[in-house]
Amino acid sequence: MSLPKPPVAPIALALTPLLNHRFGDLVRQGDLDFLEGRRIAIAVTGAPWALALGLAQGRWQVAWADGSEPAELLGNLRAFAILACGEGDADGLFFQRQLEMRGETELAMELKALLGRVSLLPPVPEPLQAAVARLRTMPFLSGSDI
């Protein structure tokens, strides 16, 4: 028995402005045309549901993945946190088997390359860096089981 999916609207409301802020210039410049009219699944290992991200007429679309996405980027929570903070190399995470691509590899590789170039989150402010470094050593972020 699978869990029912909660509404995706709260996630979309939180994620869409962040995507617009960090990737808006790239959308306008055409650097994300590979996502136009398409969706890619983003799945965290062990999470009950995956998100689907895509662009429709230059606007971000966030939904629950339904299996129809041509590609999927799968990884543990630690790998996605490293990418979101811009602190790791997407290719390195792939070769360390912390990220995996499924389906249409070219589409997943485009997204992986983008995430390797542009961090989703701004840099951690200096006063918080020590606390964030301690968090990174916690088991829930360090294992590949998440």
Automatic annotation (TrEMBL):
Domain of life: Bacteria
SUPFAM superfamilies to which the protein is assigned, alphabetical: SCP-like
Domain SCP2: 28-115
InterPro entries per the UniProt record, alphabetical: SCP2_sterol-bd_dom, SCP2_sterol-bd_dom_sf
Protein name: SCP2 sterol-binding domain-containing protein
Source species: Ferrimonas sediminicola
